[in-house]
Amino acid sequence: MNDPENSGAGTGRAGAPAARGRWMGLFQAWTWRMAWRDSRTQRKRLLLFSSSIVLGIAALVAIHSLKARFEAGIRTQANALLGSDLQVSSRDPFPVDAVAWMQTHAKRVRRETSFSSMLSFPKADAARLVQVRGVEPDYPFYGKLETDPPEAWQRLHSEGGIVLEPALLDQFGVGVGDRVKLGSLELPILGSFKKGGPRSSRFGGFSPQVFVPYSALDQTGLLGANSLVFHLLHSELSGANSGALPAGASPGNTLAREFRKHFPESRWQFETPESRRDSLGNSLEQLEEFLGLLALVALVLGAIGVAAAIHTHVSRRIESIAILRCLGCPASTAFAIYLAQALVLVAGGALIGAALGLGVQQGVASVFARHLPVALPPAPAWPVIAQTTFAGFTICMGFALLPLLRIRGVPPSVVLRASVEPQRPLWTRPAEIVCALLLMALLWGLTVLHGTPPRRAALLMAGLMLVFALLFGTAAGAAALARRLPRPSWPYVLRQGFSNLFRPQNQTLLFLLSLGLGNCLLLTVLLVRGSLLESLKPRDLRASPNIYLVDVQEDQRAGVKALLAGLGLPLLENAPIVTMRIASVKGVPLRELEQQAEARAKAAREKGGEPKGTPRWVLQREYRSSYRAELTGSEELAAGALFSSLPWKPGAEPVPVSLEAKIARDLELGVGDELGLDVQGVPLRAKVVNLRKVDWSRFNLNFFMVFPPGVLEAAPGFTVITTRIPKEASSGALQRALVREFPNVSAIDLTLILETVTEILEQISRVVEVLAGVTVLAGAPILLGCLLNGHAQRLRESVLLRTLGASRRQVRSVFLVEYACLGAVSGLAGAALAVVVHAALAHFVLKAAPWPEARVIAAGVLLPPLLSLAGGAWLSRGVCTPSPLEILRENA
Amino acid sequence: MNPSSLEHSTAAREESAPHKATTSPILEIEGLCKTYGTGFRTLKILHNVDLKLHAGDTCAVVGPSGSGKSTLLGLCAGLDRATSGSVRLLGRPLEDLDEDQRAALRNEGVGFVFQSFQLLPTLTALENVLVPLELSGISGARAQACAILERVGLGGRFHHYPLQLSGGEQQRVALARAFIRRPRILFADEPTGNLDADTSAPIVEMLFEMNRAHGTALVLVTHDPALAARACRIVRMRAGSIERETTHERP
């Protein structure tokens, strides 16, 4: 035999691969070569396993890039949406000195008066409630308002007329040059606006907007009797286009503070591009919460999938690792070989997943875009896609590391005798504990990075760890039960199947940690989705009013009632309304309360959390209150006593007031507390005598504050009358009659609003369904991984059984019993945990009912054992195909 | 023991390992014990075993199943850690070395042949033989691996996977792999245990030829009295202890 020329190999490890640290092996070409060689018989299987990463990362990328595009849309369009750097609004006309102050501090100031009113189209003999915006020239300062024809906006101020939303032209079959009637003023249609332009965030957001010159408003005759009027001051600040500045630091906010200081008694509302951005973002908060959860679940499912896959792969490679160790391979190099495989698997899966996610988000965006309040930027959010893909890759690699770390502990003596020593308990494996904790920290970081408050993210992680711990416990319990349960009288296949749950190399823990956890996460998603869709679903409103007649004056009430009667429409409700504001709460003046609220908001902003206590808007808003003796059908007494049972006499102060329960909670008021009110300049002391629970979803006339008769009758107010038109009938006749006889009365047609709302909700539901579907798919490879994991071991056992004379049927039955048990335990444990997790999420995050959908739970309990059983059947089919000799030879 | 063979092999080793003293044993074990904890019970596998081997020695470990032969072999090769006692392999105390240092020592001067061949199933015959060299960072040794495969009679089987080879062929690949780094000691755990007599004969011949040619110390665990008889020393084990040790001249 020739002497090998290997004198170059010294006695040390100088030339050996990867001897200088755990991770250095990755930088050796040999490691990658071995990784490639080792994968030879496993590539198809590994590719299959990578599908869990693909789907997990696809969902993650789709969700976060959609969110990022939405936010980018808001960010870039916030100024244009507002049209100015600062918008001050008031329910009363601004005093001359306030306008003058603003004019000296801003580069330009323009006035606007906005209100809801009926607009009639004589040509079509029809009318429609619109939001009228009377604006001065040069507004908006930001954002290009494109009109058709292009000169329409210029002509609005030079010639006078009206510019409408194009939908109105289509709806009523009118065009440029046709005339419309607004109150007592006839105006020519100058054109329609195509895109851009500022949008109002106020009431009337569902009704189409029309623009008229500010100077023409007086001639409409609608301002005096209209309760829905807003006066606005739009200011442009020099060099103040500050979309990039943090909230609170912009010139708009600074000027707003100064303005407030100069006019401390004012009740004006301020809006800056930053606050508009926030409010737009908040409007879809619940959906974002769900999508965030969905993304997290998808990622964890993908990660579990890859962890299960790597676990299976490593289990099959234990002997090869031991041989390598025996031949002198350092533990770090052996580890690096499989780490390299995992890196390629996860990186490949992540890239394909990112591409798929990109496709999904493009699809969703194109369907959903037209229903969003902002235009999405055309390009996908590449940095977010890259960042999310990388984050997903890191998390999946972290999960893959857990089984990979086992490799370092594979003793070379396995070549002599398999399973020389039992696997050490988890607490004696610090590397795995550190890795698991790091993973949780990473997941926490990712969740926080994507907008979840740190505390809530920490709670989510704690919940996830608790779920893991409970599943560990369940696995131990199931194994112990399987050890005790079988009786000698049971048929052999049954005993054997049960025994497989606790014997060496059992799969109980693996099934629970993958299938059980996967089931738990998927059910949570489906349950939360159900809760969300339920809250998005419009109620059955067959008995509810669908037309509101607003601003019916005292002297018009009888006429309007007669008009309804003449048209054969019922008068459902008739509520007097008086507007008022809060002056003090429990003796603390409003100013002080506002300062406290502002300080809390600031502190919360700095900490990145949500402010506690009474929100500022609750203190500052105008309350439209009513008076009546009894509760309505959509109200329920939550605390205190009804007016009728009180000894109060009209004229005495404090007057009793009934508060809606949620607003009372916001104001931190209870029965017996005092409230100071400002009823259009007249102070009024009130004492809370009861709290009401109100079902707002029924569209009845409901109020935050209700007084007993005998308090507000003398105050200036108006009446709202509700009626219901049959579904098939059009409200056209009523609207035309109203415009003719009572032009100041606005008919708010809820059927139109409901249609819009339903359409938006349907779109949101569809998005939820699509994304939840992708997430559910991400869970599928987990089951496959579980089934394949035990395949080799069961193959050997079945061969022995067959050699000893077991029939195919017996072998199959053993399999089926084992897999049915594993599936049943995973299904039950997953479903039970999902119910708890969903209840916690519903209560603390989504503010929804904690009760799970029975359908989903039933599916969660029944499907895992059925799928597992089917998988077992499929595996057992394969087991009986090759001859025992073939398998014995393969495993020799 | 054949003195001339010993002299020859020692001289051969001195060329590549000048730091080793010619008289120092290549394997020296003292008071070796091994116990396993299985649940609530402790299983004593080896008890107070002493053994010393020099370069070029051939030693057969025999005894009934469960007497601790394979465990002894594993401990000698540093595949496992002893519960107590010491193992000095190639002049280095194994108890002072960590896992990776022991792996390095194995790669440097230890060869293995197993009853179940223990080839890497995803590697071809040639790649399996190359692994020990690649592990020590030696590249371009393909010709050397091919040559050694030719020597064991597998010239046409370079690119076959273990599953495509017969038992005898697999064991010859294992032999080629064991000798590619010209080890100073070779441990063989029932090397012919899975083979018939006709297939076994050439394997055994190769083992002893390598011992003669390169002075490789040979430790054989076997149930085969004929194979054991070819070794200079026969260590008979029973219940974890050495029952008897016989030494005779090489036949």
Structural class of the helix and strand makeup of chain B?
alpha/beta
Q: Major β-sheet of chain B, in short?
A: 6 strands, mixed
Rg value of chain A: 35 Å
**Largest interface: pair, residues per side:** A-B, 50 and 58 residues
- Measured as a percent range, the helix fraction of chain B is 25-40%
Number of helices of chain B: 8
Q: What structural class is derived from the secondary structure elements of chain A?
A: alpha+beta
β-strand number of chain B:
10
- The main sheet of chain B orders its strands as 6-7-8-3-9-10
Approximate strand percentage of chain A: 15-25%
Q: Can you identify the CATH superfamily of chain B?
A: P-loop containing nucleotide triphosphate hydrolases
Separation, N- and C-terminal Cα atoms of chain A: 30 Å
Structure in words:
In chain A, strand 17 (674-679) and strand 18 form a beta hairpin. Chain A is α+β, with helices and mostly antiparallel strands and 892 residues long. Chain A is elongated. In chain A, the strands form 2 sheets. A 6-stranded mixed β-barrel of chain A has the order 2-3-8-5-7-6, surrounded by 4 helices. Chain A has 4 domains: 18-74 and 285-415, no CATH class; 86-271, no CATH class; 461-539 and 754-892; 573-723, no CATH class. Chain A is 52% helix and 15% strand. By secondary structure, chain B is an alpha/beta fold. Chain B has one domain: P-loop containing nucleotide triphosphate hydrolases (Rossmann fold), CATH 3.40.50. Chain B has 8 helices and 10 strands. Chain B has a 6-stranded mixed β-sheet with strand order 6-7-8-3-9-10, with helices on both faces. Chain B has a 4-stranded antiparallel β-sheet with strand order 2-1-4-5, covered by helices on one side. At the A-B interface, helix 1, helix 10 and helix 11 of A face helix 2, helix 3, strand 6, helix 4 and helix 5 of B.
